[in-house]
Design brief:
seven-stranded mixed beta sheet; Aminopeptidase; globular; 5 helices
């Protein structure tokens, strides 16, 4: 397994995996498959630019297949520059249960520690996703609140646990 920061050259593989995650676990992501499907690939390439603090990390098999991702971003507003956020964490079924999610999160957190003004890392996770919450807690995240009905699909509400850790 190899983990590295994705670049614009990885846009197609990243977007294919992201779309798979949106289809497989629609309640786990704020974006919908339908909304994401309308995103031009050039915009995805721009999101993977290495010229900003924001980053997406990918886990690749020994054959070069992208099977897991985790993103991290920072806020540029002066009063919120101290915070980073985790987004889009997903591991394909073929990689689940092998510690890939942990490796991706550890990589993202190690990267966060290189940004001098980032002091906190925040994330939101579906309250029903016990395995992800357990992983995040083992990495040092703590729940500081719950957003009721954070996501709503087909008339069903999904709560999200709001979690944070100090760097």
């Amino acid at each position: 397994m190899r983990i590295r920061r994705l670049t614009p050259d990885d846009a197609q593989a990243f977007w294919t995996l992201r779309m798979q995650g949106l289809m497989q676990y629609p309640e786990a992501f704020g974006s919908s498959y339908e909304e994401a499907a309308a995103t031009p690939l050039d915009k995805v390439r721009g999101r993977l630019s290495v010229s900003s603090e924001n980053a997406v990390f990918g886990a690749f098999t020994e054959h070069g297949e992208l099977i897991g991702v985790a993103g991290i971003y920072g806020d540029h507003a002066a009063k919120m520059r101290h915070k980073a956020g985790i987004w889009g964490v997903y591991v394909a079924p073929s990689g689940q249960g092998r510690g890939i999610g942990r490796q991706l999160m550890e990589t993202a957190l190690a990267y966060a520690r290189t940004i001098p003004h980032w002091e906190l890392v925040l994330l939101a996770v579906s309250s029903s996703n016990h395995s992800a919450k357990k992983l995040y807690e083992s990495l040092g995240f703590r729940t500081y609140g719950v957003e009721p009905c954070a996501l709503k699909m087909n008339g069903i509400c999904y709560d999200e646990d709001l979690m944070m850790m100090k760097l």
